[in-house]
Amino acid sequence: MPALGVGTNRWNASGPGQARLGDTLAAALDAGMGFFDTAEVYNAGRSELALGEAARADGRPVLMASKFAPLPYRVTAAQFASALDKTLERLGRDSLDLYYLHFPYSPLGVGAWMRAMASAVKAGKIRAVGISNCNVAQMRKAAGVLARYGLPLAANQVQYSLLHRKPETDGVLDACRQMDVALVAYRPIGGGAINSASPTGPGPSALADTLREVAAARGATAAQVALAWLLKRNDHVIPIPGTTRPEHVRENSAALTLELSEEEFTVIGRASAPTPAR
Ligand SMILES: NC(=O)c1ccc[n+]([C@@H]2O[C@H](COP(=O)([O-])OP(=O)(O)OC[C@H]3O[C@@H](n4cnc5c(N)ncnc54)[C@H](OP(=O)(O)O)[C@@H]3O)[C@@H](O)[C@H]2O)c1
């Protein structure tokens, strides 16, 4: 699994920009970030379509993750299987590298959906099982059910950035380390709020000033420094910055080789107040 992936929630197959999305995918593969995150609900399936089309056009192997949304009217294993088949069809694949339960709020609960996931692994339709937006109790529940089928819980995808450090205070980061589960970090650059390209940058704050100082000293951008900080925080953390632009993929990928010193890491951490658990 690459240490950094690409979020595709704004990819849209019906938009005019498919060629640019193809270039974005190619740039990610060139940079060693060939792990793409999508979901059936992103642009009503058109993110999956756009990703599938870009991957087909490129031809190189691509790791893909998508998500099942346990909407309130979805309560059967047949609905799960049908949603997965539609996702595979849109992506143009026979199997998916990682399939997440998008969120835990469901009349059925996390455990029942993990049984459906285990059936999909057995059927060869998914290679690994993840959950998203789950707390520690839900992680343990999911891992317990999967263990009965001899399967590991591969990932919990949660919001994590220097602007949102809740996984450090609600136990999720610790649980990921203890259980050897990847913490896939969504919104890792605060939805674009942390970046150097915007004239407003991350805003007038201690964090913004510190990121700018470290970035200037290292000849890097604030986004690169923020991603490098997450990568240094723990090796279970896999940030998936969302982008529709090859130049942003190239910029973000430089975080993979930007090794922050202990002092830089500490100073940035201090400037970003940890988010309370509740
Ligand atoms: N599991 C969940 O519930 C959940 C929820 C939200 C998101 N996600 C996933 O996580 C991914 C990432 O989250 P996100 O997209 O919301 O937030 P994000 O990655 O923090 O930020 C994405 C925004 O930053 C911009 N950007 C990217 N790289 C940049 C750079 N180097 N310089 C300046 N701007 C840059 C992007 O615009 P450009 O297109 O112009 O680059 C986009 O507007 C999503 O794509 C999605 O796959 C999952």
Written overview of the protein:
This protein is an alpha/beta fold and about 280 residues long. Helix content is about 45%, strand content about 10%. It contains 11 helices and 8 strands. An 8-stranded parallel beta sheet has the order 1-2-3-4-5-6-7-8. Strand 1, helix 1 and strand 2 form a beta-alpha-beta unit. Helix 1 (about 20-30) packs parallel to helix 10 (about 245-255) and helix 8 (about 205-220) packs across helix 9. The radius of gyration is 19 Å and the shape is globular. Mean pLDDT is about 95; it is low at about 195-200. The structure holds NADP nicotinamide-adenine-dinucleotide phosphate (NAP). The site of NADP nicotinamide-adenine-dinucleotide phosphate (NAP) has 26 residues, from helix 10. NADP nicotinamide-adenine-dinucleotide phosphate binds near residues 9, 132, 157, 240 and 243.
Main-sheet strand order equals: 1-2-3-4-5-6-7-8
Order of helices and strands: EHEHEHEHEHEHHEHHEHH
Number of strands: 8
Largest sheet: 8 strands, parallel
Low-confidence stretches: 196-201
Helix-residue proportion: 40-55%
Average pLDDT metric: 94
Give me a quick take on this structure:
With 278 residues, the protein is an alpha/beta fold. Helix content is 44%, strand content 12%. It has helices spanning 18-30, 46-58, 77-91, 109-122, 136-148, 166-169, 172-179, 206-218, 222-233, 246-253, 262-271, and strands at 6-7, 35-37, 63-68, 98-101, 129-132, 153-159, 182-186, 237-239.
Offer a few descriptive terms.
278 residues; 11 helices; 8 strands; binds NADP nicotinamide-adenine-dinucleotide phosphate
